[in-house]
Each structure stands twice: as structure tokens, then as C-alpha cells.
Design the sequence.
């Protein structure tokens, strides 16, 4: 037999046994015998592993309040269709499992073995669960995974790649707490590799979005996947922020300790850790931003592409016509098939609120919006044309009014409108400008020819000069009368009396 270096073979025997000791609570659960209400055996080892995964998820989600009732509800959701137990039964199962992982004495579990490296009996102490908090109001104890619990979870499987960065973050915090700075540097390097791998996955995922979304079903799957990635990266980003603050506090503490010591290496290591962590955090922040862009823009573009693909591939004769004529559908089903291709139902209704709604005044035949005030001369050509038409109209109306007043020295609007209806100018009664003319006379009464030069005339514009020129040196007074005149269906105006300024307006 060739010479064998026994020392090298058995080197690290205690550490290997420590890994095996982690599984001892699970095997203890397997040895327990318990049945449900139908006398079916319950494998507590499997429930124990589910318990570890439950508390591991709570740790990743940073939920610090998970107790017996929360675990019982989780086990019921996972195994309820296979294990026939009521709520109290599941709580009893959860309590048994927790007490196995964390004895009621509060002491750690011990595992005795023969250490063949040292040749002496040895003992390992493990702690799977530990007390996390206590609620005095509800008398509830909360638990969380201890360091050995995390090791046991990691030992059960090469864990999901999307959790790998979160795992490294948890381990990094533990190493910083213990002062294992060299191991922390290695951990940060592994985190950088994880971030790079995630970046490659995001690029591949973006390409898959553009190629593989061919139905609503695949679109829903990718949408759910992107939402999960976004939530995971968001939690990791929050953990990076906490790690940054923790490293800063550790750096200050180490700096204070190394001032009194000759060995400056711990402080140099923590400075390197701080710098490397910032680089990884920066890369992860870019990745987090990419996930937001991918979730919004890329997913929307894929959905739009899916919509237009459906439009291009749609054939009315094949998809609709053949369905209607080849399949004997009831009338209700036919309505459902044809409904998307029929016009939207329109119902004409009138609301009382329209009475008080803002009204736009439109000139007949033009459709243009007008204001109530009189227009001034400006640089707009349309406005100049309008003012030219108004100037001619106001001059014509003033001429007709003065002709009427020459007979008796006064005039009244009602008889004036009556004569106008039988004249060649009857069309003016259907235009808004006719009534604007009388409103203007009433508002500017008394009117004198010199009003067009300075005073009020300055605010009215030069286009009224032709109307004022007809007055000469006379004064025109316009007063309201109590009755109103309904000229047509559209217009009603208050009756007015027009007299000269040297005449008593109340009498002849």
C-alpha cells in the first residue's frame, strides 16, 4: 500500500462534521411519528425544510415579525390539500418544528462526535432559529434564522440565482460584524460577478421580449417576470443603502481603534471595502434603472407590436364570416361576435347644465367667435373688413333714425322696427349688429358729434366718425321704455325713446 498522508486527509474534519451537524434537526424531525385526522403519516422533515425556506424568505424581505401563527398559515397554504388538520393542528405542528430548531431551554443544540483529526471527543453547538422580537400586547414571540440556519438553507441547494446577490449581502454584513475584512472583500467581488451576470440576463431578456411575445399569454408571463425582477432589485438596492451606512459606521469605528495601534491594515481593508462596495452599488443602480426602463418602455413596445401583429393577421372572412355562417350560433352569441365591429351606440341627450354653460357668440354664416365689446381698428385684415361693414351699417341706421326724427323731433324704437320690417332693410332685423347699434346708443347717450374727437371717442375708434358726423352740432338722448320688443325668435330688445338734447325726454 502506498504511503498516505493521513494528516491531509483528516484535515478540517471538525468543519466537515459541522456541516453534517446542521442536518441533525431535520433528521430528528424525520424520526418523529405524527398523523393527521385521517391517520395519514406526516413527514415532519419536509415541513422542517419548508419552515427554513419560510424564515429565509422573511429574512430576504426584511420582515422581522414572523411567529408561530404566521408559519402555521404558510404550512396550511402549502400542504392544506394533502394534510387534514385544522388551524389548531397546524399551529401545534409549527410549534413542534420551531422547538426542534430552537429548544425551549434557550440553549443551542449540541452535536457530539469523535474528532479524528485531534483524536479527542468533540462537540458542536448549532443555532438554527433565534428569538427576534416579542410583542407584549399580543404575547407573541417572533423568530428569525440564525447563522447556522442560513448555512443549512444554503447547504440544501445551490440556491436560485436571483437570490444570490441578496445572500451575499447578508453574508457580507455578518463578516463585517465579525471583523473578517479579507473575506468581506472576496464577498464583494462575488457580488460584482452576480451583478454582471444579472446585466447579461437583462440584455437577453430584452431580446426575448422583442422576439417571443406572440400572444397575450406570453405577454402576461413576461410582465409578471419583469415585475418580480423589479421588486427583487428594489429590495437589493435598499439593502445596498443600509450596507453603505453600515460600512461607514464600521470604518469610523476601525479608524478610532487603529489610531492607538501600529497595525493599520484593518483600516486599509475597510477603505478598500468601502470603495469596492460603492462600485458594485453603482453598477447595481444602473441595473435597477435598466429594469425600470425594460418594465415600462420595452414591455409597452412589445404589447403595441402584439396589437399590430394581430391587426395584420386578422382576416374578416375567415375569422368572422366563416364563424357566423358555418356554426349555428344562437342570436345572443352572434351579437357578441358582431359587437366589436358595430358603431358605438350614441344617445342624444340634453342637460340642464348647458343653460349655465359658457356660451360662444357666433356671427351668422361665419362660425367665428365674437366678443361682446366693440372692435377697435387693428392690423388684422379680417378685423378691418369687419369694421368697414359695421361702419356702413351704423351710418345707414343713423340715417334712417334721423329721417324718422325729422318728422316729429323724436322717435321710438318699436315703430321704427315696424317700418323697417316693411322696407328693403328688413334683413337687418335678423343680424346681431342691428341690436348692437341700439345698445351702443343707449350706453353712450347723450351722443354729440364732438364725442368722436377725444373723450369717449378715443376709446371707440375712428370707424364711428361717419355715424357721429351725421349729428352735426346736435345732441341725441336715448332712454329706456318699460316695455320690451320681441322682434323674432332669436332677438328681444327693450323699447327705447330717442329725442334731441334740447327737447324734454318725458314730454312732447
Sequence:
Amino acid at each position: 500500500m502506498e504511503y498516505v498522508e493521513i494528516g491531509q486527509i483528516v484535515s478540517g474534519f471538525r468543519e466537515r462534521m459541522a456541516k453534517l451537524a446542521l442536518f441533525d434537526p431535520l433528521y430528528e424531525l424525520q424520526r418523529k411519528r405524527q398523523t393527521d385526522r385521517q391517520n395519514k403519516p406526516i413527514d415532519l422533515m419536509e415541513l422542517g425544510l419548508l419552515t427554513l425556506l419560510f424564515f429565509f424568505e422573511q429574512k430576504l424581505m426584511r420582515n422581522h415579525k414572523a411567529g408561530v401563527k404566521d408559519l402555521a398559515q404558510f404550512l396550511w397554504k402549502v400542504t392544506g390539500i394533502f394534510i387534514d388538520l385544522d388551524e389548531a393542528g397546524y399551529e401545534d405542528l409549527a410549534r413542534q418544528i420551531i422547538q426542534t430548531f430552537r429548544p425551549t431551554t434557550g440553549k443551542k443544540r449540541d452535536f457530539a462526535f469523535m474528532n479524528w483529526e485531534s483524536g479527542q471527543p468533540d462537540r458542536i453547538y448549532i443555532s438554527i432559529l433565534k428569538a427576534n422580537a416579542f410583542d407584549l400586547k399580543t404575547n407573541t414571540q417572533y423568530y428569525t434564522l440564525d447563522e447556522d440556519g442560513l448555512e443549512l438553507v444554503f447547504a440544501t441547494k445551490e440556491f436560485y440565482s436571483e437570490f444570490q446577490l441578496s445572500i451575499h449581502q447578508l453574508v457580507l454584513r455578518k463578516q463585517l460584524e465579525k471583523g473578517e475584512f479579507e473575506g468581506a472583500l472576496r464577498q464583494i467581488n462575488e457580488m460584482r460577478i452576480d451583478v454582471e451576470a444579472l446585466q447579461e440576463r437583462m440584455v437577453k431578456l430584452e431580446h426575448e421580449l422583442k422576439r417571443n411575445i406572440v400572444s397575450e399569454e406570453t405577454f402576461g408571463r413576461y410582465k409578471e417576470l419583469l415585475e418580480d425582477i423589479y421588486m427583487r432589485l428594489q429590495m437589493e438596492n435598499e439593502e445596498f443603502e443600509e450596507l453603505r451606512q453600515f460600512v461607514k459606521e464600521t470604518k469610523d469605528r476601525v479608524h478610532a481603534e487603529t489610531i492607538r495601534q501600529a497595525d493599520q491594515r484593518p483600516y486599509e481593508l475597510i477603505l478598500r471595502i468601502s470603495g469596492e462596495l460603492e462600485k458594485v452599488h453603482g453598477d447595481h443602480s444602473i441595473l435597477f434603472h435598466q429594469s425600470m426602463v425594460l418594465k415600462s418602455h420595452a414591455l409597452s413596445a412589445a404589447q403595441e407590436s402584439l396589437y399590430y401583429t394581430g391587426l395584420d393577421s386578422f382576416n374578416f372572412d375567415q375569422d368572422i364570416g366563416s364563424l357566423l355562417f358555418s356554426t349555428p350560433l344562437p342570436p345572443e352569441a352572434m351579437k357578441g361576435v358582431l359587437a366589436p365591429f358595430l358603431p358605438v351606440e350614441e344617445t342624444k341627450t340634453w342637460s340642464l347644465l348647458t343653460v349655465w354653460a359658457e356660451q360662444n357668440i357666433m356671427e351668422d354664416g361665419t362660425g367665428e367667435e365674437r366678443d361682446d365689446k366693440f372692435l377697435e381698428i387693428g392690423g388684422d385684415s379680417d378685423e378691418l373688413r369687419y369694421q368697414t361693414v359695421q361702419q356702413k351699417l351704423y351710418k345707414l341706421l343713423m340715417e334712417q333714425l334721423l329721417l324718422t326724427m325729422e318728422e316729429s323731433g323724436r322717435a321710438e324704437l318699436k315703430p321704427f322696427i315696424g317700418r323697417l320690417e316693411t322696407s328693403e332693410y328688413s334683413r337687418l332685423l335678423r343680424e346681431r349688429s342691428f341690436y348692437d347699434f341700439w345698445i351702443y346708443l343707449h350706453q353712450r347717450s347723450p351722443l354729440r358729434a364732438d364725442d368722436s374727437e377725444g373723450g369717449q371717442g378715443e376709446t371707440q375708434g375712428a370707424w364711428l366718425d361717419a355715424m357721429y358726423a351725421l349729428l352735426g352740432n346736435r345732441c341725441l338722448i336715448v332712454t329706456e321704455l318699460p316695455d320690451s320688443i320681441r322682434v323674432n325668435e332669436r332677438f328681444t330688445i327693450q323699447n327705447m325713446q330717442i329725442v334731441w338734447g334740447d327737447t324734454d325726454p318725458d314730454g312732447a
